[in-house]
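cache lookup: miss for this entity combination. No prior model stored, computing from scratch. Input as submitted by user K.M.:
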Amino acid sequence: MLKITVCIGSSCHIKGSRQVVEELQSLIAEHNIGEKVELGGTFCMGKCQLGVCVTVNDDFFSVTPDTVGDFFTKEVLSRV
Amino acid sequence: MRKFDTKVQYLKYKVLREVARLAWEDKLLENLIDIPKTIVPGNEPTTRCCVYKERAILGERVKIAMGGDKNNPNVIEVIEIACDECPVGGYEVTNACRGCLANRCEDVCKFGAISFDHNHVAHIDKSKCKECGACAKVCPFTAIVSRKRPCQNACKIKAISMNEQKAAKIDNDKCIQCGACVYQCPFGAIMDKSYMVNAIDILKKSERNSRSGNYRVYAVVAPSISSQFSYAKLGQVVTGLKMLGFHDVIEAALGADMVAMSEAKELSEKGLLTSSCCPAFVRYIKTAFPGLVDKISHNMSPMAALAKYIKETTPNSKVIFIGPCTAKKAEAQLESVKPYVDTVLTFEELQALFDSRDLDLASLEEGVLDNASYFGRIFARSGGLTDAAAQAIKEQGIDFEVKPVVCDGIEACRMALLKLNKGVLDGNFIEGMACIGGCIGGAGCLTHGEKNKAEVDKYGREALEKNISDAISILKL
């Protein structure tokens, strides 16, 4: 199981964490990998400057609503 | 720059600040006995008959600032020696009575309680008087006044009487912890117990303040904060909180968004509901209208709902709620809420915490606070919850017409509940808030002002998310 956690704290929220979450949800559905991926949220990860903060298992990534597609292909699809 | 409404609050704040200062430095137990003298140094009394009485009262304030009497389950406590034993005579004729000829007071009194002496001066027979106040209203010289204790006057549910020593006494079975008496007592003889020392302990041992700390502390702040700390920007308050050791600051308004959605659903299913956000209102129904308990929404309060979410999604977390409310202190002790909320602070106590660390908010960098929607944020003022419930019904596409009865102040709540009890309420949803104006009227606020409602609405409009569903979509992961 791949665990993706998106920061939903204030700073990341303003930088678009909702769009990132929604995009990830639709990509997961589109690729039909809902069984293999667990998407979760957490409040501040403590790296506000790098927001939107996302972790895949324990690896940290800085994602924006514009780069979420690339991130999904590179870091999620490749691991499932 | 006005920090408080009254000097009573200022005095309470000075005690809280000193207690906090010592608690941060781990010097509280050795030094707490010196706090009264730090606050009242010389030999000149400023508030009471002598400095010794002032210090004795301050000693009691220190105890309450450290959690108060452990044997008293109520979070609202009377400081007996601070109680000035105000008059309790009810309606009395003062020497402004000129012994006129009209005698309107006698005519209007339905109980025959007014008589006149040889100088035509009116007298009230207390054995006949029902305290209706009709005579006072008609007297052309306003010579008849009601001498009622401010605490009893403030306590609309009549939980305050006096003991054998004539000091105020709270009926714990009736008290709903709204804090109206705390705010109204001109001598500061009734105080809400403070759990600030617990909060400091939690913060001190957390990951941010201690090397061995293995948990993070989350501040859940009530939306009424937008009308507080007006000398600084909200973002600076957020930075200040982080400097105290909070890992993150989250809007309780997000919990309000969650609650609005499920409360709207529950309302449409049951057809009749009373709100469950205000713990004083909920307790009032439970104590005074037990037959209506099944009408109370089953939703947790926004504070509890959000705290539960944080605890369930974040391992090793602690939650401190910060708001305008004294009743929240009691709510946090309920078995159903205890696991989620570690402790509760008021804005008054937060001000003391900031100053105990010498944090000058106005000079700090601005942090950000944005988790909730417009609707979650306006919960802080009367009518906001109703607007949110109606919006949540719309957003969920539910076919139901909300007929709200918006009540602020426990008297208005009482009227609506009496009607509901008799089956003559014109409405299907009671929004009940114990404080006048809603949470912005809370006893734990630093200041209360006419602009507060406008401040809350402005803060609401600044929310990134305009809809409730958008704000909570990120939670449904």
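stored under new cache key. The helical segments of chain A are 10-14, 17-30, 68-76.
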